[in-house]
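hey all, quick one before standup. I had two proteins in the batch that finished overnight and I want to keep them in one place so we stop losing track of which output belongs to which input. First protein below, input sequence then structure tokens straight from the run.
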Amino acid sequence: MMKRYKTILATLMMIALLAVAFALTARRCYTLEKEACFNTLTNYTTELADKIHQDFSRDLEHLRFISRVLGQFGLDDFRNAKRVLSSFEEETLISRLEILYPDGRVMTNQGSFVSAGGDLSFDQLQALGEHISGRSRDLMDPERLVLREYVPVVSGGETVALLCGVVDLDRLPQLYRVQAFEGRTQSYIIDSSTGDFLMDTWHDELTNVSVMTTRPPKAGYSFEQMAYDIGHMVSGSTVFRSRTADEYFYCYYEPVGTQQWMVLLSVPQSVAFARLHSFMAAVYFLAAVMVLVLVLYFMWMLINLFKESHEKASQLMQVRYMYEVEKILFNAYLNPADIHRALWKIAQVMTAQYTFLLIRNDGLTDRYFSWGSAGGELSLEDLDAAAFQILPCLREEGRLLTYHPRSSFESSPDLIGLVDRLGLRNLAIVPVIGSNDEITGLLGAFNMKQRWNNTSLLECVTLSFAMMIHNMQTFQSIKNMGMIDGLTGLLNRNSYLAGLSTIEPSQFRSLACVYMDVNGLHELNNHLGHAAGDRMLCTLAEELKIAFGNKNTYRIGGDEFVAICKNMSKDEVFRKTKELKEAVLEQGYYASIGIEWRDRDCNINAIVKVAEARMQEDKRCYYQKDVHNRRVREMNHQLEQMILEKQDADAFLSVIASSFKGVYFVNLDTDEVRHIYIPEYFEKMLDETGQKFSQALLMYARTSVYPDFVPRFAELCSYDFLEKQLESSAVPEIIYRKMNGVWLRLQVFKFKKYHPGSRETLWVFEETEPPESIT
């Protein structure tokens, strides 16, 4: 074995030495040929710049002579002007002559007049004196690009017209052909003041020098340096890659000396280095033969050396890896940080930049975990959207492994956008199957450095994750039953007693207790049933959470609620309690409340007892006052009205339920929702998102609606965008198709209470026919 290793090492050293020798030879040859290329370009560029300068200077001198003739004869007699223009014979660059009069008329060389319109301004051009214009459209043929050489026509000491020599830019490539490199050189004239090309022998149309920003420069060169040189009329060189020819072009540019023009010559690398390529082809062929022989010999030994050991190492690694992941996840339901450790372990083994676990419950994402080598976590919205799109493929194939995500997801624009946003280069995902053969999670990794032929390294640990998910869900269910009130979602009495036992008075500047008892629950249950009483308790619980949050608010009995306020000022406690009582009254209910606030002697049990006693006193006063009797009568009347309204609403809903799939009142300021008719599945989504309508609607779109319609739902959930549509008196709507094939129409209306302080809207979901374009 040692002898084989020495042979391999010697072979590697020989290959390395040969590679270095050939590389140094190629580099030296390339340097010499590049210097020769730039020397040739420099000489021809200088010659071309001189020729262009001489030609335009001669043209201007010719125009000066004609303008003096026109000034002597005068321009009042148009026949004289026509005779002068028509006698012009085309020389060098100028194709024809024109005269621009102060009134905006232009006399052509045929003696006819055309209007310059808004294209030419006599006053502006006169102020410039003798000059050559930038690239512009020909008045006679707007499809043609020209230059205009202007010389004032002076008569009696005043400029009476402007003589214009029109230069047809289509003629320039014919006049300025360069014979360097056997005539395979491209020539350009650039107006550095605008960046416009005045001549381009490579492309069919004239563009702007800015297009070169799309052509990647070769190392050591930059478009910024070229742009600086051209802008400051400095000669220089550059090398860029042409996408059309798919090769590098070597360029040299030089000021013309006329206007702010630069002349640029370029030559393809295949032409400039033709001799070098022939020589290097022979050198490379020799090198390739030698290296190939050595590499084949090396590979033969290498394959024989590692084939046996690799299989054994892979098997051992997989067993060790499975055991370590299982060990890490054993108590992960108690310590979720262990899940991140397990994902880190998977990332190590699979050489992945990111790994993630989505835990699903009832078809929705329940929890998610991710690990990334750059730190931080992935977005739940991104992961959830990806899971929803990929899930059908997983159900069909059982796994997903792709090293070309864009082509794999070309049928889903949302997934392509996600691929670009996360920078996905490759992706592997496997489902985590629960005890009932349902998908309880998705385990994935992406941007793996090593290329894998299958997803076995993910699949072999899914059983450990399935057991962990089962344990986590069971543990959470038991914990919630013991610590959370099932009706209101507040912490229950067990949580209350446990929380009190952990409060140390010395830890807080102040402590307060707000003790609340609901009045009229018994009467409400008797008149409208326990469902109405439950709604009242839930309403009071929500108002309590709004006032004091849900971290230290409890339902400790049938109609008793407690809020513990830590480090809260006395004024703030009483203010929030007042707002709570007013909010409860606005809902048509009444609650007796007792408050005790202390910033010394902060024994929590004593504080609660005082608050409870004050609540009882408030309750006693409420029932003793005559106002209570009036409120009882009012409540009875309200209850009777509510019973009638409920019966009317039930009758109405029984009629429209077959057509209307949801009717909601949504406050755009708070994202809160009230419903007239709500399907059970959407009610679960509202609970899942904390009663936030926009979040629940996006969840509904991602899980129940065809992906093509999901972006439209995202627009409506941007309430500022929605408000602009409502303010324009339009009725925003979406006609969309659900996954089950049913077509629905969603319309949003202003509600009668809609105003800047409370933007109440009505959202109606109704069955409809498919659009005509679909049918």
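OK second protein, same deal, sequence then tokens:
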Amino acid sequence: MKFGFFDDSKKEYVITTPRTPLPWINYLGCNEFFSIISNTCGGYSFYKDAKLLRLTRYRYNDVPGDVNGKYFFIKDGDTVWNPGWQPTKTELDSYECRHGIGYSRFTSSKNDVQAQVLTFVPLGDNCEISSLKLTNNSSSAKTLSLFSYVEWCLWNADDDMKNFQRNLSIGEVEVIGSTIYHKTEYRERRNHYAVYSVNSKIDGFDTSRDDFLGAYRGADAPLAVENGACTGSIASGWSPIAAHQLNLSLQPGETKSFIFVLGYLENLQGEKWESSGIINKRPADEMLAKYQTDEDVEKAFARLNNYWDGLLSKYTVRSSNDKVDRMVNIWNQYQCMVTFNMSRSASYYESGIGRGMGFRDSCQDLLGFVHLIPDRARERIIDIASTQFQDGSAYHQYQPLTKKGNSDIGSGFNDDPLWLIAGTSAYVRETGDVSILTEMVPFDNDASVAAPLMEHLRRSLDYVITHKGPHKLPLIGRADWNDCLNLNCFSEHPGESFQTFGPSEGPVAESVFIAGMFVKYGEEYAQLCELMGMPTEAERARKEAELMNEAIIKDGWDGEWFIRAYDAYSNKIGSKECEEGKIFIEPQGFCSLAGVGVEEGLAKKALDSVKEKLDTEYGVMILQPAYTKYHLELGEVSSYPPGYKENAGIFCHNNPWVSIAETVIGRGDRAFEIYQKTCPAYVEEISEIHRTEPYVYAQMVAGRDAKFHGEAKNSWLTGTAAWTFVNISQYILGLYPTHTGLSINPCVPKNFGDFELTRQFREGNYTIKVQNPDNAEKGIKQIYVDGSPINGCVIPYVKGKTFYDVTVVMG
């Protein structure tokens, strides 16, 4: 069942009913100011950091759901309705929500009045614009009242929802003309404030939530709207809001427009707030002056569209498969950009309070967006590396505002260091910019202790080399990529310390997954060493990677698949010897894509085992059989019911690893089959089962053992976006950036047909026609560049060359 449709020409998903299975959301903002908006106008805004600089409130787990947002109430006689349906839920005569690239547009009607709302965050300003147009489609005049409504958060979202004894006394607002100022906390040496303004003379306002809503009422039935008049309340403590009232009359066929601006401002350094009010409202005045007319909004919206068109033109495909085209050209890359901005911090499944930027997460996200915004990718790598410790380990998370490591989460996730190599390698291959490797970067954000980024990478590599267990495999630490596989947390023997099982540093549980990572990224580190004129170090890295490869084959192979790990007692995890959790997806995908066991035929066996034991119609499960009882010695993984999350759920993030591995051994049919199963455009038809947005990837889909098999959770912010784009763009469609040029080596299903690609790589623009006359899954007969044949699959990079006309013949 579908709840809308794709409009590819406009790069929009069109939602045709407000009653979607879950709120279907969009992200607004490109740089520092961001908003989340649902298809019923729920959501919130923040500046830079969703925890520390939250502008508007949102209540997670509220009942009914998704009822705190930025709303417009239209009062037409006794009828009150909202363009986005919520929160009044008045039945609408028509409804449409178009989620576009950085904007959302709502068009609804009731009793012959049409409302159109366009909401977006403009480039270059820290504000959200909502352009509202009301049209009278009846044959008689209409007298209406329009009310806006936002509820301010008292800046720190965590403190805002917990510290009532203080926060109910600190709310401060001011109203000047049609602008409502939220100046709470300015007395605490802060220089920021927020505004909500409209470009029209208002007929009333409220800034006290209790006065606007009324006692024991909610946003579904505000007393002020029911009475047809705001009260002019000025909040003092309690819960400050911003609500405007505009009375209007519309002749038949007439349209009136209003521009609402929600913004974040800072006074100039040294300027203070006076008790009598605002002594410097100039920053707000200057910003609001830019958005006073429909023409102003149209120009800002056009700039935003041009910005996104430019980004999304850097990699495009035109094939006979419209679902592939729309995901590659629009939605997958768009989600990569949103995930770059948010990491895992703020969504409808992450409150923006508990998590900041992830070390591992952000490094992986780089793989999906580095071609879009290489300059910002460079900055992100430096930010991430700055949280690393001198021994090569790192904070697992850091706060986006402070760039400081999150000490509450700490470190000890032993895969983290290798992801820094992965992200840096991707950046250098994409840009050719080796200067980043000599950039001085602090350890633990301590400027007195800094080293070139290349030294950070060496310590990342050496952290794994110096932290191995009895099978010469990497120590897992608190966990590797699977945060819930905590093999060092508990002892089978009460009172017995893990210190007795390993070196003085602690327990010795080992990860075959990290071992596979080391083989892949050890080689990528060696290539960086060669670029830097360090052949001895490159040779050392390759020797260590070969030793790790041998260790995997010797002690990480279980006969038909790669084992997952060894616990601190050297018991196998993910082995045929186990009663539950016999096979895990992670090492099958990552060891195989790293090339481990490919020549020996082990990779093929492992991938065949994945198909036999882990595959479902909705994707590949993370493990089987599911854990049906709690395993204290395994940590959190078995705390989930069977089929959910890490306990045999379909973790969409690692499905691309298996698909990539299939391309490594040349099985395009199987690689594409895996790609399709979790691809949003392919599951749109079963939205009543899948439930999350059919235009973006979810983190998890319930596995075969779950009651609701096929149901997705945790959409938008997931490493699935980056890894899936890497899979489809670099391995299936086959354009892989190397240090010496752009490699072209597709691996597609036999019936995929010919296709065309465009790709910006460094300063070059590539137009590539791929011909597949023999319906080959993989293999290149010949590549022609500007009409001349070349040897191999890599188009040599020519500095200064701006255009490459390429024909690829598969076979």
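Flagging for whoever picks this up: The radius of gyration is 28 Å. Confidence is low (pLDDT under 50) at residues 490-505.
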